[in-house]
């Protein structure tokens, strides 16, 4: 395959609003011996994209290419013999032309060169569109529901933004494990979508008092765990609706980072507070492999159903609109939004 000398990518040279996003030209990515080179078809759009753009999460350097997940096809395999001979590498069954999903910063580009451990083959049953929408949310749901708080039969779980792409997977997984799921969302339409994924109770936070409703549903006891991707706007209320020895899993910061709290805030109920990142659960191939297998099985069995809400063009205007729509409180997004980068 003939490869270009330059590529296009959506990037930013400084932190700020969506106006800092530009479509820039870069040299073709230099492949390290342990990297796989991928021609990108679709990029997933996630809240973490906005965190890096705003500077909540620091960028390694500027210009910084946006995006944290993508799908496409392999155009180059690693050249390091130790990698090629590794059982963990061989278990994934990579091949030139193979369809893959990629997880890592800088994915909204025409080509990527990324460490092989961040590249996952896409099952034959899955489209490239779905492949670009599953990796970040799928691995987050699996790792956090196992290691941040191990969701189990008999638990009662609260999921904020239950009808978003991540919330729907959290819901499906928790129901599969035998938990009761309470969710929050903004509209009746989104509530129905969440119920179709298994949510038992959906609270319309735009019309109802979330703390009051959770305590009503649980008979005043509260929930075993909260998975909160909202952040600042919901953070403190979670302490009121968690039961004694409950766990607060701070997943994200859609409304902004929560204000600092004293550790003494945890002591009245012996609450556990966790702020994990999926990347720190799957640093090594050995750690990632069981989750990759579980994710593949969840896709093949239909446990994880990928709902693609919108696909935006690979333009500055398209990516700006996608990030704006995703980050708008009470948005109409129920599922995943993508950027179509190229045909492959």
UniProtKB/TrEMBL annotation:
Protein name, UniProt field: NAD-P-binding protein
């Amino acid at each position: 395959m003939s490869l270009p000398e330059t590529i296009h990518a959506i990037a930013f040279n400084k932190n700020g609003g969506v106006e800092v996003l530009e479509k820039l030209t870069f040299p073709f990515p230099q492949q390290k011996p342990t990297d796989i080179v991928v021609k990108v078809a679709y990029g997933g759009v996630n809240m973490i994209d906005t965190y890096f753009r705003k500077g909540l999460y620091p960028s390694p350097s500027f210009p910084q290419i946006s995006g944290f997940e993508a799908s496409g096809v392999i155009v180059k395999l690693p050249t390091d013999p130790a990698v090629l001979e590794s059982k963990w590498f061989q278990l994934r069954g990579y091949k030139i032309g193979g369809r893959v999903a990629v997880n890592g910063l800088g994915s909204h580009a025409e080509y990527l060169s990324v460490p092989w451990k961040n590249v996952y083959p896409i099952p034959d049953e899955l489209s490239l569109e779905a492949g670009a929408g599953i990796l970040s949310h799928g691995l987050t749901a699996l790792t956090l529901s196992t290691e941040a708080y191990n969701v189990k039969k008999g638990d009662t779980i609260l999921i904020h933004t239950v009808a978003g792409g991540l919330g729907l997977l959290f819901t499906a997984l928790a129901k599969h494990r035998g938990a009761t799921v309470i969710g929050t969302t903004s509209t009746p339409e989104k509530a129905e979508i969440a119920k179709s994924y298994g949510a038992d109770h959906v609270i319309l936070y735009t019309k109802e008092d979330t703390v009051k409703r959770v305590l009503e549903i649980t008979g005043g006891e509260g929930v075993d765990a909260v998975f909160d991707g909202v952040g600042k706007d919901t953070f403190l209320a979670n302490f009121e609706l968690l039961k004694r020895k409950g766990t607060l899993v701070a997943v994200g910061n859609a409304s902004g980072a929560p204000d600092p709290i004293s550790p003494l805030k945890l002591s009245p109920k012996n609450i556990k507070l966790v702020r994990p990142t999926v990347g720190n659960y799957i640093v090594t191939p050995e750690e990632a492999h069981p989750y990759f297998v579980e994710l593949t099985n969840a896709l093949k069995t239909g446990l994880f159903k990928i709902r693609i809400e919108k696909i935006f063009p690979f333009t500055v205007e398209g990516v700006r609109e996608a990030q704006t729509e995703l980050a708008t409180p009470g948005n109409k997004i129920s599922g995943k939004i993508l950027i179509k980068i190229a045909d492959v």
